Hints:
Strands 2, 3, 4, 5, 6, 7, 13 and 14 form an eight-stranded mixed β-sheet that branches. This protein has a four-stranded mixed β-sheet with strand order 1-12-9-8. Strands 10-11 form a two-stranded antiparallel sheet. Strand 6, helix 8 and strand 7 (about 190-195) form a beta-alpha-beta unit. By secondary structure, it is of the alpha/beta class. It has helices at about 5-10, 15-30, 45-55, 60-70, 75-80, 95-105, 115-130, 170-185, 200-210, 215-230, 290-300; strands spanning about 35, 85-90, 105-115, 135, 140, 155-160, 190-195, 240-245, 250-260, 260-265, 270-275, 280-285, 300-310, 315-320. The protein is globular, with a radius of gyration of 20 Å. It contains eleven helices and 14 strands. Helix 3 (about 45-55) runs antiparallel to helix 10 and helix 5 packs across helix 6.
Amino acid sequence: MNVHASAxxxxxxxxxxxxxxxxxxxxxxxxxxxxxxPKYFYDAAGSELxxxxxxLPEYYPTRTELAILKERGSEIARIVPEHxxxxxxxxxxxxxxxxxxxxxxxxxxxxxxxxxxxxxxQASGLKRDFPALGIYPVAADxxxxxxxxxVVASMPKVGFFPGSTIGNFEPQEAQAFLKxxxxxxxxxxxxxxGADLEKDERVLYDAYNDAAGxxxxxxxxxxxxxxxxxxxxxxxxxxxxxxxxxxxxxxxxMHLISKKSQTVRMVGTTFSFRPGESIHTENSYKYSLARFxxxxxxxxxxxxxxxxxxxxxxxxxxxxxxx
Length: 323
C-alpha cells in the first residue's frame, strides 16, 4: 500500500463520494504542476457562486446563450423531432431547458446529473409547469456511460449540453464525451450544444477576473471544500486567484497562486508550496466555428446548423449523429 492509499485507509471518510474526492485531490496535488479537478467546484456554495457569476456584467456566456435560444427557438424546434426525449447532460437550473420546452413538442425530459437530490428538486418544479411532459431523472456521472430509462427507448433522442461546459474538457476529453453521448443517445440522434467562441482577449480576461471578485471566491471555494470535507488546513489568505488567456491553446486558465512558502496537510498527506507556485484548477477552451465542427466530426457527429449572436460571442450547434 502506498502512502496515499494508506492515508485514505486510515481517514475513515464518510462516503464513497468523499473518498473519491480525497483520492483525486491527493493525486492531483502530488503532480507537477499541481492541479485540482474543476468538478469539485460544485458543492452547494460553489453552485451558488457560479449562479452569481452568470449574473455579472462581465460574464457574457450565460446571457448570450439564453438570447440565442430565445431568438432561434423556432428554428431549433424545426430540427427537433416531435415527441422526442430530450436528454440533458449535467442538468443544472432549468432556465435553458424551459426555453426548448416552450418551442419543441417533446414527449420526455431526462435530466442527468450526479446529484440525485438536486435532480428531484428541479424535476418537481418542472413538472408543475409542464404536467404533460414525462420527466425521468437519472443520477449518474454524465461523462461516463450510463443507461437511459426504458420508457424512452423507442423515442427519438435529442441530447442537450448547454453552457460552455464542453470548453472545460481537454480537446481529447471533449471528443471522448461526444463519442460517449452519441453511443448513449443511439442511431439518428441529435445534440444541441453550446460552445464559447474566440474573441478579444480583454473581454475574456474581464469575464474571469470580475471586479466584484466573485470568480475569485468561486475558485478559492475548492480549498474551502477541502478544509471542510477532507480535514485540510489551507489558509485561504495565502492563495490568490489568477485567470489568464493562453493564446497558443485558445483557452482561459484558472489558477490558485501560493503567496508564500507553505506546507498544507489533508487526509494524512502534506503538500509543500513555493512562493508563486500554482494549483491549476480549470481550463475554458474557446472555439472557432470551424474548429468546433472538426471536434464534433472526429467524434462521429456532423454540424447540421449553427447559431451565434450578432457579435459572435457564443455559439449554439445542432449536431446529428453520422451514420
